[in-house]
Amino acid sequence: MQTIRKGSRGGDVATLQHALNLIADGIFGPITNEAVRDFQRSHNLAVDGIVGPKTWAALGIGSSPNPRRIDKIILHCSATPEGEDYTVDQIRQMHLARGFTDIGYHWYITRDGKIHKGRDEAKIGAHTTGQNSYSIGVCYCGGCPPRSVKNWANQGKDTRTAEQRAAIIRLCKELKSRYPSATLHGHNEFANKACPSFIVKNDPDLCAL
Ligand SMILES: [Zn+2]
């Protein structure tokens, strides 16, 4: 990762913004600057707004490229009923309760389109049996019909909000810029499951990436 500061632009800025739960527009403006300073303050770093090796390391983002080979980006849904929120912390707690060492996904997208950092990308995720070693797991909140529908938990429904669709595209674009040889997939390509409740290869926006 490069050293970046107010005025910087590009993929590294977007990565930083994802990690800080900001809108990842790739432009290091005043809001990003303020969030970096808050982060530095709470992590006992020099509060200068400059994201160099120490701040990147504290964010859990390596200053060197990911030592893992990444050849797939795999999309998931959280199997949450339509219209309901499920936070990244709730997912993390659920996965910890299952015996995982951390949240299984690397990135999680809430209904408002915010991109939340999950497991560090350098660590192997726990999201797709047989495919975890060389992949990045991305999950959006939703994927089932509303709770009022009988048997909702056993049905898939593409519940992505407009904000989630845009965020998934933005995130996948950014991931592909960092892992150029990686291909995009849905969990349902590797398992007899509905997840992520849509066909990635039929999504024109995702196919265009
Ligand atoms: Zn899945």
Tell me what the structure shows.
The mean pLDDT is 93. The strands form 2 sheets. A 5-stranded mixed beta sheet has the order 4-3-5-1-7, with helices on one face. A two-stranded parallel sheet has the order 2-6. Helix 1 packs across helix 5. It has 2 domains: 48 residues, no CATH class; 136 residues, Peptidoglycan recognition protein-like (Lysozyme-like). 28% of the residues lie in helices and 12% in strands. The protein starts with 10 loop residues before the first helix and ends with a helix. The chain has 209 residues and is an alpha/beta fold. The structure holds zinc ion (ZN).
Provide a compact summary of the structure.
The protein is of the alpha/beta class.
Q: Given the C-alpha coordinates, what overall shape results?
A: globular
Question: What is the rounded distance between the termini?
Answer: 22 Å
Count of DSSP E strands? 7
Beta-strand percentage range: 5-15%
Largest sheet: 5 strands, mixed
Superfamily (CATH H level) name of the largest domain: Peptidoglycan recognition protein-like
Low-confidence stretches: none
Instruction: Quickly count the domains.
Output: 2
Rounded radius of gyration (Å): 17 Å
Heteromolecules bound: zinc ion
H-E order: HHHEEHEEEEHEH
At CATH level 3, the topology of the largest domain is Lysozyme-like
- Tally of individual helices: 6
Oligomer: single chain
Helix content: 25-40%
Query: What structural category characterises the helix and strand content?
Result: alpha/beta
What is the CATH level 1 assignment of the largest domain? Answer: Alpha Beta
> Order of strands in the sheet with the most strands?
4-3-5-1-7
CATH architecture assignment name of the largest domain: 3-Layer(aba) Sandwich
